[in-house]
Design a protein that fits this description.
The structure is a single chain. This protein is α/β, with parallel strands linked by helices. The protein has helices at 14-25, 29-45, 47-63, 68-120, 124-129, 132-174, 176-223, 225-230, 234-286, 301-323, 325-342, 436-443, 466-471, 487-492, 500-510, 513-517, 536-550, 566-580, 615-621, 624-635, and strands at 354-360, 366-368, 376-381, 388-392, 397-407, 410-420, 425-429, 451-456, 459-460, 473-476, 485-486, 526-527, 554-558, 584-588, 600-605, 608-613. It has a six-stranded mixed β-sheet, sandwiched between helices. Strand 13, helix 18 (566-580) and strand 14 form a beta-alpha-beta unit. The two termini are 47 Å apart.
Length: 636
């Protein structure tokens, strides 16, 4: 799916989908809130009718020489009714204000939960093809646009729209002529709003995109600050930022210029209309022009005065609706981006073979158990006859004639075969881009192969549930990822139910215990910013310990020691040997000294296996590996 952009108009159906979700989240509170808004809006329109009646009573009293006591008999009940109406309206306003706070924040909370849950189910391909800063903007800029729509835009439009409709019918009740004049003025206001509001909305959408670009650039420079400084790129970065920031300024300036101009123009059209109603109404009254209305009343001063107030309400609320155009457009653009992300195809998993705790009986048969025994088996239900078989988890991994391409037509791996028996150490070497990491991505099923087969303990990995497959694999990447929390919590990430003793034992195995115990709070030292207070080598040691505590039968080490200096590598080598003992291990390494003791070394070039054998065999062959190995020594 092509990545949505801010500069296009929101798709049709986005608003209805948003409203449907809002009702699904709050099926009772939303209707109650709508009723309160409509009631308070209608209540604010009714007083104009009573103002007209009061003025008429007073003018009649003056013409008939009434005293206040006679007039007050009719006026006081009206005043009491209005007071009660306003009190009830105040309660309704207070209630819907509180409910809107609950609905708005609750809706955003549920949306973020739904987005994050969806994100956890997306394939790795999505994160490889989308900028992380852009993904973050879903949770910041786009969610904030929805907040403004739900908390301000929708209530304002509903409230103002209700007032406009109510006042329109009250106007018709009193005078067709003055209503026609008012509607003509409002049509002019809407034309102006469409012309200027359209330009404003266009630039507000561009502003949102420019804001995302600016935030993304700042994040990128912050993450690479050391690189920027060491290569003296401060001035270039400043120039690049100035260009991006200038674009944000231009878009923001134009958006707000339109928006700030629209309000006063529409408001002044309303003021002109107010004057016209007073003048035209006065002329009609003085000339005793026949009045056409639903009430059949004669046009007099009381109706003109009431119309002046209704005109203010009518135009004022139309102006409020036009002011929400920008927030509505921005929110719909943000909602479209969010829905596009939530509509992405989730990671598929047709697997039905699961990993279970197992016991090996004396006769060698495998039995499932609920207790943790340290032994695992694949539970394989056979759909044909309904039988279930158990295969011990050993770590036998075989790739047969595998082809793969990240993009159609651009083959990354071609006819690759790998045979790893339980306990073997298989190494992949070759130039950057040769396909080494891709092989491990396929074993993890981060991506699925285009052709060929991958079998794990004799089972096609497509039949194994991905969560169970990945639970049986340990992974240490070249790029470490530590999370906010203590050191021991980061180690426990590999096995959430691991005890402190198991985590410490794993750290000792990886050679990390020595430096951890010298930290200010030892294993309880808090880490943040991907372990920014640790060296790269120390972060890698914690990542190795995290894999060790998981105790998987298969380990994948993707340049696991590339960030560790020679002295630290010597310290960790013994621990790594213990970690790899009895396990099937796949090693990717540029430092060829780390793969000399591998059972099998596979040399890749442009997605093909061009040589394979152990170290001595490949050196004797004097081929590509020999050149890489001797070249490494020359570099040393």
């Amino acid at each position: 799916m092509p990545k949505p952009i801010y500069s296009k108009k929101p798709k049709k159906g986005v608003f209805s989908r948003l409203m449907k979700m809002l009702l699904e989240f709050y099926p009772k509170l939303v209707p109650v809130t709508i009723i309160c808004i409509i009631f308070s809006s209608i209540a604010s329109s009714i007083p104009d009718m009573y103002i007209q009646k009061v003025i008429k009573i007073i003018t009649q009293a003056l013409s008939k020489d009434w005293n206040w006591s006679k007039a007050s008999e009719q006026i006081i009940p009206m005043m009491l009714f209005l007071i009660i109406l306003y009190l009830i309206s105040t309660v309704a306003i207070t209630l819907y204000s509180q409910l809107m706070a609950v609905i708005t924040q609750g809706f955003l909370n549920k949306m973020r939960q739904a987005m994050f849950k969806k994100m956890q189910n997306l394939p790795i391909r999505f994160f490889d093809t989308h900028k992380h800063g852009d993904i973050m903007s879903y949770y910041t800029n786009d969610i904030d646009a929805l907040r403004q729509l739900i908390s301000q835009g929708l209530p304002t439009v509903l409230r103002a729209g209700t007032v406009v409709i109510a006042v329109f019918f009250i106007m018709l009740y009193y005078s067709f002529w003055l209503t026609l004049l008012t509607v003509g003025g409002v049509i002019l206001m809407m034309i102006v709003a469409k012309v200027m509001g359209g330009g404003s909305a266009k630039y507000f959408i561009r502003q949102q995109k420019s804001l995302g670009d600016t935030e993304g650039y700042i994040q990128e420079i912050m993450n690479g600050q050391k690189v920027v400084k060491v290569f003296n790129h401060e001035k270039i970065c400043q120039q690049e930022f100035d260009e991006i920031n200038e674009q944000l300024y231009q878009d923001s300036y134009k958006a707000n210029a339109y928006a700030n101009t629209l309000g006063p123009i529409v408001m002044n059209i309303g003021n002109i209309l107010y004057v016209l109603i007073a003048v035209v109404g006065g002329v009609l009254v003085l000339n005793h022009v026949s009045n056409y209305s639903l009430s059949g009343s004669v046009l007099d001063v009381s109706i003109v005065v009431a119309f002046l107030n209704m005109t203010k309400q009518f135009t004022g609320n139309v102006n409020q609706v036009t002011q929400q155009i920008n927030s509505v457009v921005m929110a719909l653009a943000g909602a479209e981006r969010i829905f596009d992300m939530m509509d992405q195809e989730p990671e598929t998993d047709e697997g039905y073979v699961t990993l279970v705790n197992a016991e090996i009986t004396e006769d060698g048969s495998v039995k499932e158990t609920k207790h943790h025994t340290g032994k695992w088996a694949w539970k394989h239900p056979h759909q044909a006859d309904g039988s279930v078989t158990y295969t011990p988890l050993q770590g036998d991994v075989r790739m047969v004639d595998v082809d793969f391409a990240y993009e159609e037509g651009k083959t990354v791996l071609h006819d690759v075969s790998v045979y790893a028996k339980p306990g073997q150490k298989i190494a992949f070497v070759g130039a950057t881009g040769a396909g080494k990491t891709t092989i491990t991505n396929l074993i993890n099923r981060f991506y699925d192969i285009a052709d060929g087969k991958i079998r794990y303990d004799g089972i096609n990995i497509n039949k194994i549930k991905k969560s169970d497959l990945r639970r049986s694999l340990g992974l240490v990447l070249q790029e470490t990822n530590l999370f906010t929390g203590s050191v021991i919590e980061n180690i426990r990430y590999g096995k959430l139910d691991a005890t402190d003793e198991e985590c410490i034992a794993a750290a000792k195995l990886a050679g990390a215990d020595d430096f951890i115990t010298r930290l200010p709070d030892g294993y309880q030292t808090e880490l943040s910013g991907n372990g920014a207070n640790l060296s790269q080598g120390q972060r890698q040691l914690i990542a190795i310990a995290r894999a060790a505590v998981a105790d998987p039968p298969v380990m994948i080490l993707d340049e696991a020691t590339s960030s560790i200096d020679t002295r630290t590598e010597a310290i960790v080598s013994a621990g790594m040997d213990k970690l790899m003992h009895g396990r099937t291990v796949f090693v990717i390494a540029h430092r060829l000294s780390t793969v000399r003791n591998s059972d099998l070394i596979m040399v890749l070039d442009h997605g093909k296996v061009i040589e394979k054998g152990n170290h001595d065999e490949l050196i004797a062959l004097k081929g590509h590996y020999y050149q890489l190995y001797t070249g490494a020594f020359e570099l040393d």
